[in-house]
Design goal:
The complex is a heterodimer. Chain A has 4 helices and 7 strands, in the order E-H-E-E-E-E-H-E-H-H-E. Chain A is of the alpha/beta class. In chain A, helix 2 links the parallel strand 5 and strand 6. In chain B, strands 2-1-3-4 form a 4-stranded mixed beta sheet, covered by helices on one side. Classes of the chains: A alpha/beta, B alpha/beta.
Chain lengths: 153, 129
């Protein structure tokens, strides 16, 4: 069983518990249908406080979702999956098609990007910061029932 | 896409965030010809950045431009942001992370390659999120 880390940046308080769980379930189901049952998806929800994301210079209400796929996945397999996820996301959240941005990068690239994000942290505090994020995620899961924290540390 | 993620140690006032988001968009679009409706900017606060760094920007940009063009874009963003927020360039980090356009879906469609925006349906219809 291979674990796939799914990162969802959503507007603060824009999606409630029931919809979050529906999204987790339906995206996992889509992933396994398209790519096989040998994948376990682990979701991490990052909330963006109002006024901290912009599109075309104006406050944005869009969610940004990263669901990595196997390296070298051909477009004729990658794109149908992406279309299905976007459609289901819109169906569940009632957002418009302009409010869901989906990135399905190769797994290697997704990891490199995450490493790049972690390299922002002060060297002496890097480990401590990552532990803080993990603890915050766990705390969020205890409080809300799913792994979540804020984009602010 | 592009998605610019701006990390700061302290909170940035709302007015300054709006100015920064617009500045980043204008520099990006001015240099690449990308439509404004592609440009996302997200702010992350209270981030313990590297020693001596006040502001860090990591941007996902579409792959397909030359290395020279990306470096020019990177330097111009640093220069303009530095002027706006009055932070010396050496206190800023800005890196561009190239992502193939066909890995991204926005407006229900796969993003066009750089320079092929005319083929993008949702751009023609307008993008409002």
């Amino acid at each position: 069983m291979k674990t796939v880390r799914v990162i969802c940046n959503i507007q603060e308080d824009s999606i409630g518990y029931n919809k979050i769980k529906q999204l987790e379930s339906i995206i996992t189901s889509s992933y396994q249908t398209h790519f096989g049952d040998d994948y376990k998806l682990r979701f991490f929800w990052l909330s963006i406080p109002y006024g901290q994301s912009y599109l075309a210079g104006k406050v944005s209400t869009a969610s940004t979702v990263q669901i990595p796929v196997e390296d070298g996945m051909p477009d004729d397999k990658r794109h149908p999956f992406m279309s299905e996820v976007c459609a289901k996301w819109m169906q569940i959240t009632h957002c418009s098609k302009d409010e869901i941005i989906l990135a399905s990068s190769d797994m290697t690239q997704a990891k490199a990007f995450l490493d790049s994000m972690n390299s922002r942290f002060k060297k002496s505090k890097s480990m401590k910061t990552q532990v803080k994020i993990i603890l915050s995620m766990i705390g969020g899961r205890v409080m809300k029932g799913y792994f979540n924290t804020s984009v602010n540390l | 896409m592009p998605l610019y993620m701006v990390s700061t140690q302290s909170s940035v006032p709302v007015e300054k965030r709006v100015e920064l988001a617009n500045l980043i968009m204008n520099v990006h679009c001015g240099m690449t010809g990308a439509p404004e409706t592609f440009v996302n900017v997200m702010f992350m606060e209270n981030v313990p950045l590297n020693d001596g760094i006040s502001l860090n920007v990591i941007a996902n940009v579409r792959k397909g431009r030359t290395g020279e063009m990306n470096e020019t874009l990177r330097q111009e963003q640093i220069r303009k942001i530095s002027e706006l927020i009055k932070v010396p360039e050496f206190q800023m980090e800005l890196s561009l992370f190239e992502v193939p356009a066909n890995w991204i879906m926005e407006g229900g469609e796969v993003l066009p390659e750089p320079g092929e925006e005319d083929s993008c349906e949702w751009l023609k219809k307008g993008h409002t999120a």
